[in-house]
Write a structure and sequence with these properties.
The complex is a heterodimer. By secondary structure, chain A is an all-alpha fold. Chain A has one domain: Ferritin. In chain A, 64% of the residues lie in helices and 0% in strands. Chain B is flat. The chains are: A mainly alpha, B alpha+beta.
Chain lengths: 249, 95
Amino acid sequence: MSAAARFRYVLGLADDQLTLGHRLSQWTGRAPLLEEELALANIALDLIGQARALYQLAGGIEGAGRDEDALAYGRDERGFLNLQLLEQPNGDFGRTIARQLLYGALMRDYWPALAASGDAALAAIAGKAAKEAAYHYRHAAEWTVRLGDGTAESRRRMQAGLDELWEYTGAFFEMSADEAALGDGAVDRPGLRPGWDAAIGRVLARATLMRPSATWMAASGRDGVHSEHLEPMLAEMQILQRSYPGLTW
Amino acid sequence: MPEPRLPLWEVFIRPRNGLAHRHVGSLHAADAAMALLAARDVYTRRGEGRSIWVVPTSAIQASDPDDKDAFFDPADDKVYRQPTHYRVPDDVGDM
């Protein structure tokens, strides 16, 4: 097993959780309800916690002395290997819930698959993340049903969010070059597709929403090529460490 | 934040097996299932609970403050309802 491929594989997983966690943290102070303010912040903290564990593991694999902060705050946009969906702006609450649903339905199966893999270090992180992801998915699915089967306005926004983000879901089921190089050491993404399709189908049926039609799919982001939204997000997220390297609270 | 036009729910948490559910607060939610999720997120963030109940606030019948005199004052002078009112005979020993 190539250490370089494993490093980039773990780093990509860490970047996934950090970008989405940071996006969700941007709701703080802006959420439509106090209850959702806390719910989104809880989910953001779960994701950032997952990212920290993965960055620590990645830093150890790399063996170049980079810790979690160096990996999170010391790399530029092209160094981030996250899926493009997760860097997309929050938009309105319907769009944020759409992003949570699409990604949540993936991760509630991805983490258990990783937990069952032979990689003990990753399995330990995945086992904890699986419980968190199960709740994240439930939260998103219940909101999707309430918004989709709610008022004309909530339905319009929920459908619009799904339609706008659908093109980023093709990447869920693509094996990156690093994942392919790891063989059985990485989760088989194409194998997750039937379960994801079925879960999304069930939620959309309950929500009386339309499944967006399959169209062009965006690139994954795993090669460091991103949409125009990641760079400004990183600029904001990293400014303290960029301005005062090594700063601690 | 705009004033939410969602029903109000009362939240009860049981901290451990064997203890009773205790009222911890209230929240707004569209329905019972969403109220349970919100209760989990608002009231069990620090490991407070093993079980949650949510009850529509509208289902609670509260006593009227104007009934205070008739409801509660008569109990004030019934000292014989307190166990400490009774002297335990020496023959009984420790209870």
